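About this split. The held-out portion is used to measure sequence recovery: a designer receives only the C-alpha cells and must propose an amino acid at every position. Recovery is the fraction of positions where the proposal matches the reference. Here is one held-out target exactly as it appears in the evaluation file.
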C-alpha cells in the first residue's frame, strides 16, 4: 500500500508539473504575443541560408564598365511649324486703299499664321546589335525631324526610325555603323524583388551616368502609356535607382551586365526623381524589337478576354458571386476571340500562362506580350475551385492569325495625294498644300465629305504645304481630325472632320 501511495503521489506531482509548465507557457504567449522563438525560422525563409543567402558585398564596376559603351545619347530636333490662324476672315475696309490686308490684318482678324518654334530634346538609347540597331522609348523620338546619336566615345551619327510601338512606348532606330558594342539580353522573368540593378543613361543632358538601386516591385501598371495609345501595354519593373529626364530609353541591367529593361518613366510630383522609376521588361522589348525589324510593326497577340483590372473588392465579389481564388478574374469572353474558341468562360480565373503564374492584369499582359498571333499556348484556369489547362491559339486584333502589315497614315486616309503645283498655289494665294487626287473605297476620306481636287492646307490648325508636312501633322493621329483647305478657283476655306481609326 505504501508503494502504491508513493507511486500515486509521484504521478500526481508529475502531472501537476507538466500542466503547470504548459499553462505557464500559454499564459506567457498571451503576455508576449508576436515574440519570436530563438532558432526557429518561418517557412518563407526556407533555403535562405543556403543557395539564396547573400554572398557578400556587390561590386558594380564590371557590369558598369561592360554596359556603358553600348548606351547612347539621343538628341532630337523638331522643326518650327506654321499653324494657321483659325479666326474667321473678314473684309478689310481699307484693303482697296492700301492694296491688301497686311497693314491692318491684326485689327480685322486676318493676322498671319502663328509659328510653333523649333523644339529640341534628348534621351537615351541602347545598342542591341553590332550593325547599328538601337532601342529607345517611342516618346523620345516621336515626331522628331532629326535624330542625332552620340556614343560614349563621342562619335556621332544620324539615325532613322525603323519602327515604333506607342502601346509599349518602344521604338527601334538605326545608325549606319558596324562593329559596335551592344548589350546582351537578360531574362526579366528571372528578376527578383530586392535584386541589385543599375540604370544607365544621359540624365539632364549629362554625359553617360550610372546609378544603382534594387528592384522594388514587378508588373507595375501606372497608366502612363494611355497618353500615346488606346491599347497600352504596361508591366513595368519598378526600381529605386535614380532616374531623371534624359534617362528615358536607357538601360536597366543586372549585376551580370545583362539588359533586363528599358527605363521609361518616373513617379514624381516634381518631374524629377523622387524615389521610384519604371523600366519596360526586356522580354517585352525583345518581342517588340524583333517584330519591328522583321515585319515593320508589332505582331500583337490577344487572348480575347476582358478582366478585372485591379482585382475585385469584397462587395464586388459578393455582388458577382465570385469565390476567392488566385489569378485574373475574367469578366467577359467576346465572340470570335481565341478564348471563346478554346472554351474559356466568363467567371473563370486565369492562373498560369505556359506554366508561369499570373495574379494581376499587368502580369497577364506581360506574358501574352511575348507571343504573336498563331502561337499556341497553354492557359491554366480555375473554375468552381478546380484547375484545368486549356490549349489556346492566339489571334490578332481582327480575329485571325495572319501577319499584320504596316499601315501608314496615308493608307488609313485612303486616297492618292500630290503636292499642289506652284501655279495653282499662286493663283489661289496659298503657300502650298496637298491635293486629294483620287479617293479610294474604305478609307477615312471616303467616309468624310471631302471631294477629289480638295487642297489640304492645314491639319488641326497646323499648316501643311507638302506631303511630308501632311504626314508629320498626322503622326500618331487617331479619332476626329480637322482638315482645312480650298477647292481651286473658290475663295472660301472649307473645314472637314475626318475620323481616323487607330491600328
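Reference sequence for scoring:
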Amino acid at each position: 500500500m505504501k508503494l502504491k501511495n508513493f507511486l500515486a503521489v509521484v504521478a500526481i506531482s508529475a502531472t501537476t508539473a507538466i500542466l503547470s509548465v504548459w499553462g505557464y507557457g500559454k499564459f506567457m504567449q498571451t503576455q508576449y504575443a508576436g515574440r519570436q522563438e530563438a532558432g526557429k525560422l518561418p517557412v518563407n525563409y526556407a533555403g535562405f541560408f543556403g543557395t539564396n543567402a547573400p554572398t557578400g558585398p556587390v561590386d558594380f564596376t564590371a557590369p558598369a564598365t561592360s554596359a556603358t559603351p553600348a548606351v547612347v545619347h539621343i538628341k532630337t530636333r523638331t522643326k518650327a511649324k506654321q499653324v494657321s490662324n483659325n479666326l474667321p476672315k473678314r473684309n478689310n475696309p481699307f484693303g482697296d486703299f492700301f492694296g491688301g490686308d497686311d497693314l491692318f490684318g491684326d485689327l480685322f482678324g486676318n493676322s498671319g499664321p502663328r509659328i510653333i518654334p523649333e523644339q529640341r530634346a534628348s534621351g537615351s538609347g541602347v545598342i542591341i546589335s553590332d550593325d547599328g540597331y538601337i532601342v529607345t522609348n517611342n516618346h523620345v523620338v516621336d515626331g522628331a525631324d532629326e535624330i542625332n546619336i552620340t556614343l560614349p566615345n563621342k562619335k556621332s551619327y544620324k539615325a532613322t526610325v525603323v519602327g515604333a510601338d506607342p502601346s509599349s512606348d518602344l521604338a527601334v532606330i538605326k545608325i549606319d555603323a558596324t562593329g559596335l558594342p551592344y548589350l546582351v539580353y537578360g531574362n526579366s522573368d528571372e528578376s527578383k524583388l530586392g535584386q541589385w540593378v543599375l540604370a544607365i543613361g544621359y540624365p539632364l543632358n549629362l554625359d553617360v551616368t550610372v546609378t544603382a538601386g534594387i528592384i522594388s516591385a514587378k508588373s507595375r501598371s501606372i497608366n502612363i502609356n494611355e497618353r500615346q495609345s488606346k491599347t497600352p501595354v504596361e508591366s513595368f519593373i519598378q526600381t529605386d535607382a535614380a532616374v531623371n529626364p534624359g534617362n528615358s530609353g536607357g538601360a536597366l541591367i543586372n549585376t551580370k551586365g545583362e539588359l533586363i529593361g528599358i527605363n521609361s518613366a518616373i513617379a514624381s510630383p516634381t518631374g524629377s526623381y523622387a524615389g521610384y522609376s519604371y523600366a519596360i521588361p526586356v522580354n517585352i522589348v525583345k518581342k517588340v524589337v524583333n517584330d519591328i525589324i522583321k515585319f515593320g510593326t508589332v505582331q500583337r497577340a490577344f487572348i480575347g478576354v476582358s478582366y478585372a483590372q485591379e482585382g475585385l473588392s469584397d462587395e464586388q465579389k459578393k455582388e458577382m458571386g465570385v469565390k476567392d481564388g488566385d489569378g485574373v478574374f475574367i469578366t467577359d469572353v467576346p465572340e470570335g476571340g481565341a478564348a471563346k474558341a478554346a472554351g474559356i468562360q466568363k467567371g473563370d480565373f486565369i492562373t498560369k500562362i505556359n506554366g508561369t503564374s499570373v495574379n494581376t492584369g499587368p502580369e497577364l499582359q506581360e506574358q501574352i506580350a511575348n507571343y504573336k498571333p498563331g502561337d499556341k499556348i497553354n492557359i491554366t484556369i480555375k473554375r468552381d475551385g478546380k484547375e484545368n489547362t486549356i490549349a489556346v491559339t492566339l489571334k490578332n486584333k481582327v480575329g485571325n492569325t495572319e501577319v499584320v502589315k504596316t499601315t501608314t497614315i496615308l493608307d488609313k486616309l485612303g486616297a492618292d495625294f500630290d503636292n499642289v503645283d506652284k501655279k495653282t498655289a499662286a493663283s489661289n494665294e496659298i503657300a502650298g498644300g496637298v491635293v486629294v487626287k483620287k479617293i479610294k473605297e474604305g478609307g477615312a476620306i471616303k467616309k468624310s465629305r471631302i471631294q477629289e481636287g480638295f487642297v489640304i492646307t492645314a491639319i488641326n490648325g497646323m499648316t501643311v504645304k507638302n506631303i511630308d508636312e501632311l504626314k508629320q501633322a498626322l503622326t500618331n493621329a487617331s479619332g476626329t481630325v480637322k482638315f482645312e483647305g480650298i477647292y481651286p478657283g473658290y475663295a472660301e476655306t472649307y473645314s472637314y472632320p475626318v475620323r481616323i481609326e487607330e491600328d
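Annotator remark: The chain has four domains: 1-33, 58-79+118-296, 306-393, 409-500.
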